[in-house]
Amino acid sequence: MTGNADDAERVVVLAHEKFPERAKTATGVLKYADYDVVAVLDRDRAGTTAADHRADLPEVPIVESMADAPDADTLLVGIAPIGGGFDDSWRPDVRTAIERGCDVVAGLHYFLADDEEFAALADEHGVDLRDVRKPPEDLTVASGKSADVDAEVVLTVGTDCSVGKMTVALELMEAARERGVDAGFIPTGQTGIMIAGWGNPIDRVISDFTAGAVEEMLLEVGDDYDVLFVEGQGSIVHPAYSAVTCGILHGAMPDSMVLCHAAGREAIHGYEDFALPPIGEYVDLYEGLAAPVHEGDVVAGALNTSGVDGDEAARAAVDDFTDELGAPATDPVRFDADAVLDAILDE
Amino acid sequence: MTGNADDAERVVVLAHEKFPERAKTATGVLKYADYDVVAVLDRDRAGTTAADHRADLPEVPIVESMADAPDADTLLVGIAPIGGGFDDSWRPDVRTAIERGCDVVAGLHYFLADDEEFAALADEHGVDLRDVRKPPEDLTVASGKSADVDAEVVLTVGTDCSVGKMTVALELMEAARERGVDAGFIPTGQTGIMIAGWGNPIDRVISDFTAGAVEEMLLEVGDDYDVLFVEGQGSIVHPAYSAVTCGILHGAMPDSMVLCHAAGREAIHGYEDFALPPIGEYVDLYEGLAAPVHEGDVVAGALNTSGVDGDEAARAAVDDFTDELGAPATDPVRFDADAVLDAILDE
User: Fold this and answer.
1) Percentage helix, strand, coil, to 5, in chain B?
2) From chain A, which residues contact B within 8 Å (Cβ)?
3) Cα→Cα distances A121→A95, A103, A106, Å
4) What is the rounded CA–CA span in Å between residue B94 and residue B88?
5) In this structure, is residue B41 part of a structural domain?
6) Are residues B279 and B157 in the same domain?
7) What is the pLDDT of residue A4?
8) How far apart are CA B40 and CA B68, in angstroms?
């Protein structure tokens, strides 16, 4: 899980009592990570496989504890309770993993590296404890060089938080790879970082370094791919998180953008006094704000229809969204991404 | 220097070898702070007064060292070397201040509170060491409530960094007070914080908390004033700092904005590949980005003409800027602020 995402690894994912519905990181890793997930820990579902619970997940065995897991080099905590604490019922699994020589990766507010028992045990066994919510110490301000990378840069932007910006970036990367395009992914949040095996948690960096932390990632891998899908965060009209969104926009300097929206969403989630502006206004805002730093158009859209019952209604919702946007759109989880990918690769 | 800016205090300002040209914090404090500056420390200019060096500064004595300073309760470090380090030639003054029972305030990258000698001495004498670049630990995300405060909120926004957003906010506050308006100031950077005696250094907070840290200040004092001038940071088109700008815009929810620009500036300072867009585009960007969260217009402009020789040429530059902006503008340092203040108070 360190350095390049292509390092082959064998990973066990902890998801006790929450797999799959309440284990978004675990299912994201199973669907999208390049490394091998060799087992899922869920004491309530031991003896089944991930595919038994959701058809789009692989045939990975679910076991009761780390003691029952096959050979591995990493344990990844794939769930987070509300508040981001560490559940002490996981302690024996983390202890066993360290004793078996596994690194342990988590995205909790509670830092494993600050836990005295784990820190001492990790030291003794020569393994790493990686808290992906903790940004690196050596970040700095952007130099304005992101646009110089060889790759075409595609940023997923949103009408709100939690509309699927990470999933869309990953789905589009996979669809591009299926066409033979050398496509990569730039993670900006904790789940994306766990899936990719590297990255900066942009929402946790010092605000002056927001763009710089994105730029650092672009400069690191931007010449290694033909197309890079950058995971966006928040929304440019979000009363709390727009700073992160704006820093990613100017730090990534995208050549094109994909506007992500959730079907039926009419107000900012958790801030219901703030109505979402019309789709066309988002396009103007994102393009207008990008242009003075680096020109980039919203060339396509992605609609999250997970809350819509039935493919027919979902198709109608996508059609409406396409009309409002004036550009190709899809739900890349439910339908195919062909027209959207055409629009991106034509750029 | 803690809590409310109205606490009466007697402050000594350290500005060794740099007063006044290279001591922006010291001169800012002398011009704008509500508390009493009782002496300036500059070993090269001892025996003179601040007014001897610049006509717009008060008759405050300059002395050689803290040992020569009159009775005081705070020592403020009013200069910062490149890199933000602590100059060891200041150590005797800081030591003497602590021994005399003064709090010490600094905006350096080097934190006084982490200096073993100062920390022990401060503990012994019961005084505080305040590093204003260190944000409070208890910040959180914005709740979206800034617009509920009683005060009319005016934000200074910029075409670039270092165009005078803090100075304009302070000049407009003073001009408003001269008209009898109960006006206040919300500081967002280290110099502003030292002048006001409180505040959050927005560029140093975690990016997710950018808007929240501004909102916290608005909610703290927003019902105590009729008009609040919020110090903006950076520029919405800055390749490195736009995240901070955007977070302040949505965190402050201004009722009106004053666009600040430096005469002759054509490219982003330090990022010369990035040309400034036309003035009208800034107006559209700031108003367009503000509107989905809280409607606010750019009602006036402020042009920094400190680089322009002579009042006649400066007046011509202000006239040109006024035409481009399509709203009243001035240089509030060189000329009066009447028309700009009328535009703000009419809102």
Assistant:
1) 35, 20, 45
2) 141-144, 202-212, 236-247, 249-251, 253, 271, 273-274, 276-277, 281, 284-285, 288-289, 291-293
3) 8, 11, 16
4) 10
5) yes
6) yes
7) 41
8) 10
